[in-house]
Amino acid sequence: IGTDGDGLSSPRHTVELGGFVIDRFEVSIGEVRRFLQANPGTDWPPLPPAAFDSKPMNNVSLEQAKAFCAW
């Protein structure tokens, strides 16, 4: 990862990752909206308008992701 230029991502280097799990499909904003409706009081930033419900959710903390997955 990284670049050959200046900045925080320099220099280009190899990174080894341990095992991890990834889902087959992205979580949509609509799925998160349903989660929040079923779990009122959950700490989550405001969601975009419902017109974006088919788009993938992003900028989620580890704690938020864990709560969603446990649901």
Uncertain ranges: none
* Tally of separate helices: 2
User: Class by helix and strand content?
Assistant: mainly alpha
What's the SSE pattern? HH
What's the story with the biggest beta sheet?
none
Radius of gyration: 17 Å
Percent of residues in beta strands? under 5%
| Percent of residues in helices | 25-40%
Question: How many β-strand stretches?
Answer: 0
Shape: elongated
Cα(first) to Cα(last) distance is 34 Å
Average pLDDT score: 89
Structure overview:
This protein has 71 residues and is an all-alpha fold. The longest helix has 10 residues, at 29-38. 27% of the residues lie in helices and 0% in strands.
Helix-strand layout with pairing:
Layout: H1 29-38, H2 62-70
Quick take:
This protein is an all-alpha fold.
Attribute tags:
71 residues, mainly alpha, 2 helices, elongated
